[in-house]
Amino acid sequence: MRLLAALIGAALAAILAVPGGSLYFESGGGKRCTSCHEMQPNFDAWHTSSHRNVSCAKCHEGESITNLKRAAAHLRKELPEQINLASKQVEKTNELCEPCHHNEYASWKASRHSATYSRIFLDQKHNTKHMLMDDCLRCHGMYFEGGIRELVMPVARTGPWTITHPEIANTASMPCLTCHEMHRAKPSLAFYDRRTERHVPVADLSIPAIREGERPVRMSPDQRQALCYQCHAPTAGMQVGTGDDRTGLGVHEGISCLGCHKEHGESAKESCKTCHPKMSNCGLDVEKMDTTFFSKNSKHNVHWVKCGDCHANRKSKRYENSAPAPD
C-alpha cells in the first residue's frame, strides 16, 4: 500500500513539475482540481462566480515548487482548514487582473490606492507623528504574513526606517484583492479581513452612524461605500472628520463617496461637473470656488463646505438687478 502511494506521489510530482503539467487539472473545466477534496469549496465558489468561464490557470499561474509542496502536504494529509493565497501569489494574481480589466487596473495604478509598502511605511512625516502598529496592516498590507515588527524596523518615532523584507518594498500594499473576491458572484466587492483571512461581502458590511456633535449626520444609502468606511472611518466617538473620515457635510451631506470618487481610484477630478453646470446660477465656476477642490491650501475643505463659505456677501446675478422685495 505504501509502495502504491509512493508511486502515485511520484507520478503526481512528475506531472506537476514539468512545464504545463498542471494542464491535467485544467481539463474538465477545472473539475480535476477537486481531486484534492479540500479544493471543493473553492471550486464551487468559482463555478458560480463571474469568473466561471475563465480557466483556473488564467489567474493562478502554477509554480512547480509550489505544486510539489502542495502535493507532498496532501499526501501527508496535512490539510489546511481553508485554502488561501500566499502574499507572493497575491502579488502575481494582481498583475494578472490587468489584461482583462485594463481600464480599472490603470485607474487603480494611477491612484494612491496602489501605494507600495515603502511609500506607506517609510513616510518620515507620518512615522514621526504616529507610532506604527499592527492595526496599520488592517488597511495597508492585509496580505502581509506577519506583524508590524516583521515588516518595519524600528517600530519607533525616530528613524531611519527600513522594510525588513526588501523583496516586497516596491509591491502594492493594497492590491486588487483588498476590495474584490475573485470567486464571488457579482458584485465582487468584498473587504479582505486579515484576522480571519476571509473576504467579507459588501452586503454584510455596515455603514457607520456618524455624528456632528450630538446631531446624526445624514448618510447616503449607497451600500458600496460601506467598503470605503472599512479604512476611512471616524475614530473619536464616531465624530465626523476625525481619523481619516471624509464624510460630507454642508452642501455635500448625504452624498455617497462614489458620487464624486471613481471606483478604482480616489480621484475626484472634474467630479463637480457631474452635478453642477459649468457656470452656476450665480455666475461662478464651481470648480474655481475657494475649496480644496480648487486649491489644496484652501481653508474650505470640499467635504464640509457650506454655501456661506464661498458665497458670502455675493448676490446671485439672476437677482442682483431686480427691484428690492417689498417690506
Our estimate of the beta-strand percent is under 5%
Shape: globular
Report the strand count. Answer: 6
Structural class: mainly alpha
Distance between the termini: 104 Å
Number of domains: 3
SSE topology string: HHHHHHHHHEEEEEEHHH
Strand order of the largest sheet: 1-2
Mean pLDDT: 81
**What are the segments in which pLDDT stays under 50 over at least 5 consecutive residues?**
17-21, 315-327
What is the C-alpha radius of gyration, as a whole number of Å?
A: 26 Å
Question: What does this protein structure show overall?
Answer:
By secondary structure, this protein is mainly α. The chain folds into three domains: 2-83, no CATH class; 85-203, no CATH class; 205-318, no CATH class. The chain is 27% helix and 5% strand. It contains twelve helices and six strands. The chain has helices at 2-17, 23-26, 40-47, 56-59, 64-75, 87-96, 102-110, 117-121, 124-129, 225-228, 272-275, 307-311, and strands spanning 152-153, 162-163, 190-193, 198-201, 211-212, 215-216. The termini are far apart. Mean pLDDT is 81; it is low at 17-21 and 315-327.
